[in-house]
Q: What sequence folds into this?
């Protein structure tokens, strides 16, 4: 199995325990949380219910809870035992929660077609392209029909700023892709995009609060216009095809 930074980072107990606090407790973080959940809820309502959902790279369980609230049965899987502990505490004994699985996404311990839908959010952007391809193939293998994923867009202004930051400060790897390259990659792995949601801007943590209202207004317009091609993130509902090219 390939090694990459995100594979080991969240094994650290301190990193796991501070995950949500660092990202989602500020004004901007709360808006980011809202933006992501709106996108996933919008796509998830296109999937037949009740469904058995695999929340891959489940983290602290934010999207596992959303899937449960939408009336699905859920299995939460992650490589980090520390994150799974947090997730299990938060989700409790929900009757539709079918368990927690400690595993690597590159070799999932599930049978073919085991789940109606696989969701993996805030994950694909951390994966080097060859690793991402392997995980997409595994996602296709265990999915009966659907997958809901998100990908960073290399055409966005934020992706450009992150590239500059990486060159100057050697920040952690962040792998973005263009809309046409993403479509080609997904097609090669046996998926077809059937629906997408494109929030145009995801506010940086240090952005003055004054600009947050402007960002919200731009997002309302951007998702439904050509501006969507410059979205910071693509959230996509994928349908599994009968065959793949790899």
A:
């Amino acid at each position: 199995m390939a090694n990459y930074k995100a594979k080991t980072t969240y094994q650290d107990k301190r990193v796991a325990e501070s995950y949500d606090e660092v990202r989602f407790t500020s004004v901007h973080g709360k808006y980011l949380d809202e933006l992501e959940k709106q996108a996933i809820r919008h796509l998830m309502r296109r999937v037949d219910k009740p469904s058995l959902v695999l929340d891959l790279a489940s983290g602290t369980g934010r999207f596992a809870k959303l899937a449960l609230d939408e009336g699905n049965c859920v299995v939460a899987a992650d490589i980090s035992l520390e994150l799974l502990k947090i997730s299990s505490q938060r989700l409790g004994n929900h009757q539709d929660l079918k368990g927690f699985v400690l595993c690597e996404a590159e070799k999932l311990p599930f049978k073919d077609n085991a789940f109606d839908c696989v969701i993996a959010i805030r994950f694909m952007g951390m994966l080097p392209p060859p690793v991402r391809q392997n995980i997409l193939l595994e996602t296709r293998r265990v999915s009966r029909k659907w997958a809901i994923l998100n990908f960073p867009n290399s055409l966005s202004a934020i992706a450009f700023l992150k590239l500059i930051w990486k060159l100057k400060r050697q920040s952690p790897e962040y792998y973005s892709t263009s809309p046409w390259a993403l479509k080609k990659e997904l097609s090669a792995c046996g998926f077809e995009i059937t629906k997408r949601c494109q929030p145009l801007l995801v506010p940086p943590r240090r952005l003055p609060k004054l600009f947050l209202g402007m960002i919200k207004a731009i997002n309302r317009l951007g998702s439904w216009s050509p501006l969507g091609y410059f979205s910071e993130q693509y959230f996509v509902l994928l349908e599994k095809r009968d065959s793949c090219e790899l």
